[in-house]
Structure formats: structure tokens, C-alpha cells
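My main concern about presentation is that the manuscript never shows what a single data entry looks like. An entry of this sort, consisting of the sequence and the corresponding C-alpha cells, reads as follows:
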Amino acid sequence: MKPNETQAHITKPAATILVVDDNPINLKLVADLLAFEGYRVLKAEDGEQAAASVEAEPPDLILLDVDLPGIDGLTLTRRLKGDVRTGDIIIVALTAFAMKADRQRAMAAGCDAYVTKPIDTRGLPGQVAQLLQRRGIGKN
């Protein structure tokens, strides 16, 4: 490259993350935390809203509360993972259930990772970035 030439800087669009939690405080905390990190964040308060959001605009990653009213998180995970249009979406189970059997159920349903509540606000952004990088998705 010659000294006066500039190299075009190509930026990837920010990864889109859908946060699903029926607790408004948890929903806001996680959404704000990830938005601060530069991600594009969508929100849903239950499984039905999440399914509609994914149908309208499939995200790169879903942080999904397991214990939701209506369609629970694991049922939604199985549904999304079983559909060719949404099967590649990274799904992270967010749950207060911290027993080994709970983790195994989440992974058996198709979750790609498992995060227990209360959320580690210092560690979550790094976990999300790592999961996205494994799939070749950058935040910008």
C-alpha cells in the first residue's frame, strides 16, 4: 500500500441478541448490560413474544429464561433448534435452577450454554462474546 492510500475499514454490524425474561428487572439489567457492550438488543417477556420476535427477525443469540409463563424456555429451545430456519441460533439458558440435572435438561433441549442467576454482570458480556466468536459473529 502506498503512503497516501487508505485501507477501507470494514465493520461488521453489531450482533443481535434477544433477551427473554418474564422478570422486568432481570430483562432490563441484561438488555442494558449488552446494549452498553455494543450489541443490538431485542427484548421479550415470554415465550410467545420471543417466538414472534425470532420469526420477524432471527437474532444471532438468545438469552432465554427457562421458567417462562406459557411456552417455557426449554420447549421454545426445542422448537427453534428443530426448525431449519432457526436451528443455528445460539441459545443460552438463563435460570435460577442450578442443579446438575437442570443443566443437563437445558443442554438436552438444545441450549448451547447455561448461565445461572443471579447474573454475573462482569462475566456475562465475555461469555456472550465468546459464544458469538465461536460462530464467527463479531459485535462490530
User: Anything to note?
Assistant: The CA atoms of residues 74 and 105 lie 8 Å apart. The beta strands are 16-20, 40-44, 61-65, 90-95, 113-116.
